[in-house]
Design goal:
Layout (H helix, E strand, L loop, with lengths): L8 H8 L5 E5 L5 H15 L7 E5 L2 H15 L7 E4 H12 L10 E2 L2 H14 L9 H13 L4 H7 L4 H19 L2 E2 L1 H14 L1 H10 L2 E4 L7 H10 L6 E5 L14 H9 L4 E5 L7 H11 L21 E7 H17 L7 E5 L5 H10 L4 E3 L9 H14 L4 H7 L9 H14 L3 H6 L9 H23 L2 H12 L1 H8 L2 H23 L5 H12 L11 E5 L8 E6 L16 H15 L2 E15 L2 E4 L4 H6 L17 H17 L18 E4 L3 E11 L2 E8 L3 E6 L5 E3 L1
Parallel strand pairs: 1-7, 1-8, 2-3, 2-6, 4-5, 6-7, 9-14, 10-12, 10-13, 11-12, 13-14
Antiparallel strand pairs: 14-15, 16-17, 16-20, 17-18, 18-19
Helix pairs in contact: 1-2, 2-3, 4-9, 5-6, 5-8, 6-8, 7-8, 9-10, 9-11, 13-25, 14-15, 16-17, 20-21, 21-23, 22-23
Bound molecules: adenosine-5'-triphosphate and magnesium ion.
Catalytic activity: ATP + H2O = ADP + phosphate + H(+); Couples ATP hydrolysis with the unwinding of duplex DNA by translocating in the 3'-5' direction
Keywords: ATP-binding, DNA-binding, Helicase, Hydrolase, Isomerase, Nucleotide-binding
InterPro entries: ATP-dep_DNA_helicase_PcrA, DExx_box_DNA_helicase_dom_sf, DNA_helicase_UvrD-like_C, DNA_helicase_UvrD/REP, P-loop_NTPase, UvrD-like_ATP-bd
Length: 730
């Protein structure tokens, strides 16, 4: 096979440049990843390089297995000897062989997030620090960023000697590292750091890998952090055959320490590096690229580059503003039915959203509509811990005999009730033939419990008893809100104030939205019925065809991937861009790059949607369309009914939207006015509410509607949907 076929001149040049450092910086869909796979195949097949002499680093495990698959398909042989994987998996491989040289045992354990929490909790206790002041997650993320910057505990302590809190964090950091060492364990940051340490301190080991890895590749280079760059530099130092590919416009992990200066450093550190720019995009239609170009232009300090393609202009980009998030989900489901009817496969389609919590309304709609889907890089909504926890509270309140749910929540969030205490209560309950809850009610009579243990449980019992009484008199949503507040669940997460805890809070609020919707739909809104409906939703048949599924995921996890059809949903101010980026220009630019990543995943069709009214955080919110939509300008087809920009303040505007929405759209839920059988003909004169008088110049059938093109006297040609357009025939 000719590995140079199917490549343009510049790509070919990149493949043929086998010796010496190479930097490929190019826009989305320009074939960077394709160059990497073709180049690997070329090296093996044409240059006779042994696969074991090649190292390829990707950003996710999914990308690694895809690259492995593509390469072995190209070569038609297995490439098992090649090292291909994420930074973490490569490091584990190196450490398993030689970590004993830096004082660990080769059977070391890798600590995941939960293990880390347990460990840092131990440290906080040992140093007698206030656990409310030193929340586990925030201490951990601080330690993680110190590690990435290669600042030692001592350095941090010395630098912050006057700062009581930072000094304590330094002490915690030191103790945490000591304990990791003592337990022969490494956290995720350590995997990288210890690998670098091992290589720097053991020249023979470093020499071995430097000789072994004659060719090194790094995909998505723009998202590597300092330590990762350090590692790449070490490994490729001997042969200097290092090829990194990336796109500065797609840098979306600055918040995790990824450093764009690595791109600039590359040219400095690898003198004489060849730089190849790819310009032609092969993935998307020109219409899609126009949207991407138009948005990313608004970032300052970027190298000017425009994506172009030989592909057709393609379908216009559909932008639809829906009255509510449920309508949005319905619109998307409906379009998907149509696409599948036209011949697309479910696996051709992706739904991309900014935050995981948004998947919920789509999940419910897709279940109802029997559309097969999967969620990548996140748990299905009802499988998430925080959602399960809140449901467990409700289950106990509904059914106190539910021991399993009770055990799940009795010490969640932490309220100082030890496992031993729970065990003793359970033993007592079993002996008496009662439920655990009944045993709790008679806690004073449990002799095996110390009075301290009893006191630890009493506030919980009081809280549950009060909630049980409230259940009888409160509405569903208010009740659930009360449960969440009384349990202290959110307060606990708020103290954390980390990315993860914020996500969890979002999900709980989203769960509250489920209740609001349920209450609107159902009669009476009984807790019992609500729990039944939720249990049914969370227990859908999981044995569907795993291959041919619609993909739902966040934009972050879509990096590097492509789909024939993309729905970019929830394009609202505050959601995308996310509100916490409003007062920080750097964060806003990262949001914009994220938007660029999202748009450029689409090959043939791109749909963009938003909702005027979204039940979020358990309350009804009205949002304006995302500023990115405005930046897209005329590259997208605007709906007729989009809220017109005014000079109002945001508050005035929201009020206006609210009035507009409530009076005109929301009640009842918008149904098409049935105008589609209206007798219209080309040449008819019409009057439009906004654009005035015009003449119909074209009529097209569209689903169960008609699309008419009208030449307006003042505003020129417009395309309108007959059923929706505010027109009358004159
Ligand atoms: P991203 O920045 O999103 O990671 P990328 O630059 O890595 O994009 P690829 O995924 O390698 O781009 O390529 C995008 C699409 O274009 C793929 O489907 C790929 O097969 C196709 N492609 C790339 N180069 C060519 C070419 N010369 N001829 C035909 N198709 C190509
Ligand atoms: Mg790529």
């Amino acid at each position: 096979m000719d590995y140079l076929a199917g490549l343009n001149d510049r790509q070919r040049e990149a493949v043929l440049h086998t010796e010496g450092p190479l930097l490929i910086m190019a826009g989305a869909g320009s074939g960077k990843t394709r160059v990497v796979t073709h180049k690997i195949a070329y090296l093996i097949e044409k240059q006779g390089i042994f696969p074991g002499n090649i190292l390829a680093i990707t950003f996710t495990n999914k990308a690694a297995s895809e690259m492995k698959e593509r390469t072995s398909k190209l070569l038609d042989t297995n490439v098992d000897d090649m090292w291909i994987g994420t930074f973490h998996s490569i490091c584990v491989r190196i450490l398993r062989r030689d970590i004993d040289k830096i004082g660990y045992d080769r059977s070391f354990t890798i600590y995941d997030r939960d293990d880390q929490i347990t460990l840092i909790r131990e440290c906080i206790k040992e140093l007698n620090l206030d656990k409310d002041m030193y929340k586990e997650s925030s201490v951990l993320s601080k330690i993680s960023s110190l590690k990435d910057e290669q600042i030692t505990p001592d350095e941090h302590i010395n630098e912050n000697y006057g700062d009581f809190r930072e000094r304590n964090i330094g002490e915690l950091y030191a103790l945490y590292q000591n304990k990791l060492k003592k337990y022969n364990a490494l956290d995720f940051d350590d995997l990288l750091i210890k690998t670098v340490e091992l290589l720097i301190n053991n020249k023979d080991i470093l020499g071995y890998y430097q000789r072994k890895f004659q060719y090194v590749f790094v995909d998505e280079y723009q998202d590597t952090n300092k330590v990762q760059y350090e590692l790449v530099k070490l490994l490729s130092a001997k042969y200097r055959n290092i090829c990194v590919v990336g796109d500065a416009d797609q840098s979306i992990y600055a918040w995790r320490g990824a450093d764009i200066s690595n791109i600039l450093d590359f040219e400095k550190d690898f003198e004489g590096a060849k730089v190849i720019l790819l310009e032609q995009n092969y993935r998307s239609t020109q219409n899609i690229l126009d949207v991407a170009n138009k948005v990313i232009k608004n970032n300052y300090g970027r190298k000017e580059k425009e994506l172009w393609t030989d592909n057709h202009k393609g379908e216009p980009i559909v932008y639809e503003q829906l009255p509510s998030s449920d309508d949005e989900a319905y619109f998307v489901a409906n379009k998907i039915h149509h696409l599948i009817y036209k011949g697309y496969k479910p696996s051709d389609i992706a739904i991309l959203y900014r935050t995981n919590a948004q998947s919920r309304s789509f999940e419910e709609m897709f279940m109802k509509e029997e559309l097969p889907y999967k969620i990548v890089g996140g748990l299905r909504f009802y499988d998430r811990k925080e959602v399960k926890d809140i449901i467990a509270y409700l289950k106990v309140l509904q059914n106190p005999a539910d021991n399993i749910s009770l055990k799940r929540i009795i010490n969640t969030p932490k309220r100082g009730i030890g496992n031993a205490t729970v065990d003793k209560i359970e033993e007592y309950a079993i002996e008496k033939g009662e439920s655990i809850y009944e045993a709790l009610l008679a806690i004073d009579g449990i002799d095996t419990l110390s009075s301290r243990a009893k006191n630890s449980v009493k506030p919980f019992i009081d809280m549950m008893n009060i909630l049980m009484a409230k259940k009888e008199i409160m509405g569903l949503k208010d009740f659930i809100e009360d449960v969440i507040a009384s349990s202290g669940y959110i307060q606990d997460l708020e103290k954390d104030n980390t990315i993860e805890s914020r996500t969890r809070i979002d999900n709980i609020m989203e769960f509250l939205s489920v209740a609001v919707n349920f209450e609107e739909r159902s009669e009476g809104g009984h807790l019992e019925d609500f729990l039944a409906s939720v249990s049914l939703l969370s227990d859908v048949d999981k044995t569907i065809d795993q291959e041919n599924l619609i993909t739902m995921m966040t934009v972050h996890s879509a990096k590097g991937l492509e789909f024939p059809v993309v729905f970019l949903v929830g394009m609202e101010e505050g959601l995308f861009p996310i509100s916490r980026s409003f007062d920080n220009e750097d964060d806003m630019e990262e949001e914009r790059r994220l938007c660029y990543v999202a748009v450029t995943r689409a090959e043939k069709q791109l749909f963009i949607t938003n909702a005027q009214r979204r039940v979020i955080y358990g309350r009804v919110d009205y949002s304006l369309p995302s500023r990115f939509l405005e930046e897209m300008g005329d590259t997208i087809e605007r709906p007729e009914k989009e809220i017109v920009k005014t000079n109002n303040t945001l508050e005035e505007e929201l009020l206006r939207v609210r009035d507009f929405t409530v009076s005109n759209i929301i009640k009842p839920s918008p149904k098409k006015r049935n105008k589609s059988n209206l007798d219209i003909n080309i040449g008819d004169k019409i009057k439009h509410k906004k654009w005035g008088i015009g003449t119909i110049v074209q009529i097209k059938d569209k689903e169960d509607d008609k699309e008419i093109t009208v030449a307006f006297d003042k505003d020129g040609l417009k395309r309108l949907l007959l059923s929706l357009a505010p027109i009358e025939i004159i």
